Sequence to fold (378 residues):
Amino acid sequence: MEISYQEVYRMNLIQARLGLVRSYQQSGSIAATAREWHTSRQVVRKWLRRYNLHGEGGLCDLSRRPHHCPRQTAPGVEERVVKLHTATGYGRKRLAWELFRSDGLAISPNTIRHILSRHQPDIRTKRKRKPFYPAHWAWEKLGPFALAQVDTKDIMDKNTLGTELWTHIARCRLPRYQWTFCEAKSRLRFIAFSRQLTLTNGLAFFYLVMLHLRSCGITNEIIWQTDWGEEFGGSNPNKLAYLQEHYFTPLGARLARYPKGRKEYNGRVERSHRTDDEEFYLPCLPDIADEESLLRKAAAWIYFYNLQRPHQGADMNLQPPFVRLQELLNQKLPRRLALLPPIILDIISSNITLLDGNDLLATYRSTGLFQRLIVVTI
Fold:
């Protein structure tokens, strides 16, 4: 039974090439060898030449790497990229921005990807889990302020901050929890703090944000997408219906839950919490000794995040959230929209929740509640 060169090649490429050489040595004819192995004469000549020059070692594949690469990144630059990646864990886009900002090096994210793959070949990209059903409607099909991702963050995370900063928070009696409102389309964010995770603090945060947005001319219905925590109503359908009727509907908002076990639905606010750790808490906490300094630095952080910090996210075009928001709405917005000052919710939550929900519409129209909020925070 005849067997072709390609069939043997698939099983053992060295034996296939050696078989060509042995057949030629017996027949002395390149054409006869090519016919016998059902291949071309060029293939026979190639491996005869390699065998004559280097013996059986010449039958192995040679490297296809070019001998000269004039556009290859300098070794010093590659070393800087690898060190920065090891120290920060940043992705390629973030690394490109940081290298340009700190060192003036203009390197494309794709170049950084190739550098990291050469120097860290064992690192494999985590395979993305296929969503149970698509969640693109949240930010791709609706306009700005149609959906907000809302979540809380436990600031006292010892694994992230380390023992020293964790102890510093406890000694200074700083608020433990951060409340975050993230506009899903532009990533515009507002934050507040509290000592406890309670429903009253959740309602206080809701009032604070919604009345601020309404006072800045944002009039459309806003979906507040949260997890299943009790600070946002929990999972009791009767309680959620009551909250919707008496608190959310009067201010033109709708309370929503993402499916259990699908935290990627709130992925943008979750990712922003990592940015808080890396760029705010880790570098700034040592200089924060009391609540006043915390609020002052947090206000500066929100100013930088919303108005100045280039964002690396999809469709952001390296623009700060407020700039991207104006571009999406195609209108000029008041800067104060992006500058809601952080507050301690425990101080005002009891005052706000004493108001009857049935009177909220009249209060909202006259902005009296918002004025009272500002007075309390001052």
Remarks:
- The chain is about 50% helix and 10% strand.
- The mean pLDDT is 85.
- Residues 326 and 332 are 6 Å apart (CA to CA).
- The radius of gyration is 31 Å.
